[in-house]
Write a structure and sequence with these properties.
Shape: globular
Strand order of the largest sheet: 3-6-8
Order of helices and strands: HEEHEEEEEE
CATH architecture: Alpha-Beta Complex
Helix content: 10-25%
Structural class: alpha+beta
Number of domains: 1
Radius of gyration: 16 Å
């Protein structure tokens, strides 16, 4: 029988403070932090192709798209995540002066892998 240590709980403010100093990215769900695994070469190529195609579509519109380093806060649940590509066609709203957590995405794209599909 495996015994797992209880993962500590964090407030959103604690999560953001830790995340902004971290060497790796973590998502925040229900008070807990979850490290994000690195993406495969194929995953990165698919994400890049989607970002390029979306960028071309948005070129003549008042929209902006961001790659996977833009954190998104799901206001309804308090979750913080890093979608593969995210875009907004309104003035971007950010959680605070760091402008690293988008609050108003219009499009969220997540490239699934066998491990994340479920």
């Amino acid at each position: 029988m495996k015994i797992f240590a209880q993962q500590p709980e964090y407030t959103p403010g604690q999560y953001l403070a830790l995340e902004r100093k971290a060497e790796y990215k973590s998502e925040y769900i229900n008070g807990r932090m979850f490290a994000i695994a690195g993406a495969s070469r194929q995953h990165n190529q698919i994400t890049f192709n989607i970002a390029v195609a979306l960028g071309i579509q948005l070129r003549e519109r008042p929209c902006v798209a961001y790659p996977s380093d833009m954190r998104v806060k799901v206001t309804q649940t308090g979750m913080y995540s890093y979608p593969d590509v995210v875009a907004t066609c309104r003035e971007p709203r950010f959680e605070d002066a760091f402008t690293d957590t988008l609050l108003n995405p219009a499009v969220i794209i997540e490239v699934l892998s066998e491990s994340t599909e479920a």
